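3.2 Worked example (two chains)
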Amino acid sequence: MEILAFGVQADERPLMERAFAGHHEVRCLDVFLNEDTAPIAVGYETVSTSVNAELGARVLEVLAAGGTRMIAQRSTGFNNIDLKAAERLGLTVARVSYYSPYSVAEFAWTLAMAVNRRVVRASTRTRDFDFRLDGLMGRDLHGRTVGVLGTGKIGEAFTRIAHGFGMRLLGWDVTENPGCLELDMTYVPKEQLLAESDLISLHVPLMPETTHLLDAEALKAMKDDAILVNSSRGGLIDTAALVGELRAGRFAGVGLDVYEAEAGLFYVDRSLEAIEDDTLARLVTFPNVLVTSHQAYYTEDAVGQIIEATVRNVLDYKAGRRSENVLVPRS
């Protein structure tokens, strides 16, 4: 069987080909799966997709009509997939339920430190041989308060790093993590976390109940000089409201690895095009904002684990096995 893999980055391709060798052939495409590209999958029983694929009902109908029976998503998140439509069409859907939490947690700290210590601005200056320190002053994080929204595996890894900095730890989640409690994390209501934290990092999945978790009201509840980091899902933050707060001169720094309208933008070279997304165009103009391209997971360790899990998902599908990665079982 030959698998068609959409949205494969250049660094990923050799890893994909090696992982599937001896099992199945894999055809890697750099284009992302959406309504325009779905017809490419005609004749492929199994399709592998990336986190930025558009897997709404219409795309799934095109895939099913073309003979696709299994979708192997190479990510933990699956908010981009219409699972009810997939079940109706008889499509098996699997994801990667686990990969290195350190990849995302470490990158979240990279963003936090970069905006706190004005690293991007300093680097830009020194390229022009401007070695002034004006405007580059940051703050010690030792002794300050960090608020972690979502304390699962990634949130715990982020918390352990914060503990190493000697920070006061506040957490918010539906379930308290024993590992975080051992680090002396205090679980508090979201409102208290927002009001008291000097640094806030998001590590919750995107679901209807978490969409715009940080809306206009929540953003206003934060300290004026707080640092905000989001390496989870863009839809957790009301970006238009965030721009409004930034225009008012609030927040010491904002580090975003995700954006709520990133589909069709991220992972693609748009440098020679006019960006029609006015919100994103405005966001990247703020000197205290750093936006990256949904790359927090992108380490050799994490990508290798994602691909290995994807291979297992395909093999399980062919063998009629079901694992914890299956979102819609084989009919």
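3.2.1 Second chain
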Amino acid sequence: MISQNQSRAFWWCATITGVSALVSAGFSLAAVFAHNPWETTALYAASRSVAVPFAILAAINLRSTPALAALAFVMGLIQLFDGFVGIYAHDASKTYGPFVLALLTFITLARLLKTQRAAGEPN
């Protein structure tokens, strides 16, 4: 039986991870439509960024904690690396935004894993 803490941790992690993935996909799609004609590199980035929210929806629909945890970890890393791109570009909004999303994702992931461990579920 899933406890209220486990359920709450799952939904917080799912929400933050989903928002992070949608933000990432939005920026990728903006890059696609900013170029005329569309650049192949932007299209490749968008195809990957758009796939991730669908994977997150599948994990949520299946109520799969391990799948959500894996996707949260990947999104946390993506946002972390996006923050370093923002540093390279000398753009504060493209630095702090991704770093905050990465931090929130890792915090909710840690809480999800902690509640899972406390319930004695396998990782």
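3.3 Remarks
DSSP finds four helices and no strands in the chain.
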